[in-house]
Here is the input.
Amino acid sequence: MKYNSFVVFGLGKFGQAVADKLIDAGADVMVVDNNEDVIEAYSSKATSAIEADLTDPAAIKALGISNIECAVVAMGMSLEASIMCTMVAKESGVKWVVAKAGNDRMGSVLSKIGADEIIFPEEESGVRTARSLLTNNFLEYFEVSDDICLIEMLPKEKWVGKSLKELNLRKKFGLNVVGIRDGVVNEFVDPDVPLKKDETLLILIHKNNLSKLDKNAVI
Here is the structure.
């Protein structure tokens, strides 16, 4: 499932990592925190940046988040704030609530009050979470360098039955297919062989092109 509008509650390291990646991907992002300086820093880049007491349900309700598709509750060490944000988000009709938990007990509590997904991340996990919320195309994702990643994905529907030479994916998406897995990994990729719908493509791609690959559903 893919979402286009988000609210991120709490702008610690994890919250900022998620917010930054969502903003960079062009999503509609509201950020909320009780730190005036942090909110000021995001006022020029987020869709909206609001200072609020996240332990106060009335203040959270006043944000008007009923039309937002996904909420990220990022206060892993504040159970009270996490509970309030999770409950109000669900009551407001937010489709999917992802809650960060500092430990198993906290995760259990947040799950019981309605969180759809519980995560136990550090900053890098926040980056991965943002990507998973933005796309459901990738089976696996691996960091190769600061700029390059290796992804595994099934061919898009419009790719099936066409060869890599016909598709010209390098020009259109800035990617290189370095292997094809069909039971075993075939490192020799014949550009003239048509792709099958159930074989996995191993792709090297610049991180800046990830959202481009996901948003272009057809060629």
Notes: The mean pLDDT is 86. The chain has two domains: 5-134, 138-215.
